[in-house]
Amino acid sequence: MKLAELAFACYVYSQMSDYDSSYCQLLKATRPQMDFRREDHCMALLRWLNAWGCRQFAVQYHQLAAREIEMWYEEIADRFFPFEKSLMSLSEDDFKIIQKAYSELSSRTASKRKSRNGNMTRVKIGPTGAAKILFALRPNSLIPWDEPIRAELDIDGGGHSYCEYLRKVRNHLKELSDDCERSGFALIDLPQKLNRRESSVAKLIDEYYWVTVTRGCSAPKEDDLRRWVSWF
């Protein structure tokens, strides 16, 4: 991944989606950081998940989902790494915790749905919902994903695959760090350079994948970019 490709994708992300406004509302409601032991934080999370397309969190079951997330968090809170820790700094022990936390969260209940025979069935949080919740909890190190991204990378929605995705993202960040240094600034300054101040460095990669994979809008080639710039 080249720095220019990321810059293009992040710009397109900001222009072709309204996800920024709902994310900023989430940040405002949960500052200084998310705490799933607080009901108001859980409810803000669920509103954000709905805004980000997670239909498994039916509004009439928000209280149920909030309890499920809170119970899950109570089990993992003391083992989780600090909020400030970046994806680049994660240890193998951290990845083991992430895999277990992700797997357990995926299987939790998001809502209930009436089946064709009239019985109520349990709707799970699932892989996309779990990744978004983990991102909300640790935005500096964990990022969302969705089914188109998993299909593109030919991986399933399990905890091991999610950790492999994070490792892939970390490799992207290492490459970008070199590009940033050659351009005279540090990787940590990249969100500001791209006018994405509310995005963590890790989230920028999510924005890239959402634009190029989920929405199928690939970055232009270098020759095209140079030709367009020459037209100014």
Topology at a glance:
Layout (H helix, E strand, L loop, with lengths): L2 H14 L2 H12 L8 H13 L10 H15 L15 H15 L2 E6 L5 E5 L1 H12 L9 H7 L5 H24 L7 H4 L7 H14 L7 H9 L2
Antiparallel strand pairs: 1-2
Helix pairs in contact: 1-10, 2-3, 3-4, 5-6, 5-8, 7-10
Overall body shape:
globular
Strand order of the largest sheet: 1-2
Kindly report how far apart the N and C termini lie.
Answer: 26 Å
> What is the average of the pLDDT values?
95
Number of strands: 2
Output the number of helix runs: 11
Biggest sheet statistics: 2 strands, antiparallel
Structural class: mainly alpha
Helix content: 55-70%
Residue runs with pLDDT of under 50 for 5 or more positions: none
Strand content: under 5%
What Rg do the Cα atoms give?
Answer: 18 Å
Q: Summarize the helix and strand pattern as letters.
A: HHHHHEEHHHHHH
